[in-house]
Every structure is written in C-alpha cells, then in structure tokens.
Amino acid sequence: MAPFPVDPATAIAGAAALAAVLMVAVPRPWLPATMIAVLLLPVLAYLGVIGWEIATRPPEPNAARNALLGFMLISSVAALPWLLVCGVAFAAGLALRAVLRPHARHGNGGTGLPRG
User: Measured over all CA atoms, what is the biggest interatomic distance in the chain, rounded to whole angstroms?
Assistant: First the structure.
C-alpha cells in the first residue's frame, strides 16, 4: 500500500482546482500557454515515468514499443475525462477571473479603464 493513498476522484478534483487557480492567477498573455501546459501535464507525467523505468530497470529490447502501447491504452481510457475536467476547470477559472480580476480583461495595466 502506498504511504499516502490518494483517491482518483480527489486527485482529479485537485488537478481541476489547480487549473482553475492558474486561470485566475496567470497574466493574460500567458493564458494560452498555461492552458496547453495543463492539457499536456498527464503526457509529461507519463514520459517521466517511462524515463524513470528506463533508467532504473535492466534494458529491454521492446521498451519503446511497450511504452507506446501503454500510452495508447492509457490515453484511450483517460483522454476524454481529462479533456472534460480541463474544460470545466478552464471555464470556472476564467469566470472567477472575470469576477476577481475585472481589470485583467482589458490588458490596461490594472487601471480598470479601457485603453484610450
């Protein structure tokens, strides 16, 4: 048993909350890059696991093929739920951004006034 067992629903809720907070906190020019980074976070985590496995296990002749098959299997099951969670989190974050940071909407240096 893992030292800190985490329920998958709790992990997904935490990821969604983090994505929503990022949408509120990140400056407007960085929003598209932040959204792409959040969408690709599971891929980066999977690549990290693959790198760890390659570094710590004895060499295997089919490592690349097994990694690709594992990625296809995981993505076929987890891609749609992750996209839905990200979509909801982005929408919630952008709605909170409009409420909490109304000046950020205009890109005017925080004055709250339209550019003139």
Answer: 64
Both structure tokens of 62:
């089919």
10 Å CB burial of residue 93 (0-12, 13-18, 19+) is buried
pLDDT tens digits for range 28-64:
899 999 999 999 988 898 889 888 988 898 888 888 8
Tokens 């598209």 correspond to what residue?
32
Spatial neighbors of 34 by CB under 8 A, at least 6 apart, are: 22, 23, 26
Sign of torsion over alpha carbons 46, 79, 18, 28: positive
Compute the distance between CA of residue 29 and CA of residue 32 in angstroms, rounded to an integer. Answer: 7
